[in-house]
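job 3f2a | input accepted
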Amino acid sequence: MIMEAYRRRYNEVRPHSSLNYQTAAAFRRAHNEPLTSDACVR
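job 3f2a | predicted structure (42 res):
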């Protein structure tokens, strides 16, 4: 139970400076969109 509370706080509550002060969960949601590039892949 303690580890689950820590994980939740770390990922869903605590903002991270390396993620531009977003939570890890918010960063993941914002960057989980599929890529829609027209670039060619070789």
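job 3f2a | The mean pLDDT is 87.
job 3f2a | closed
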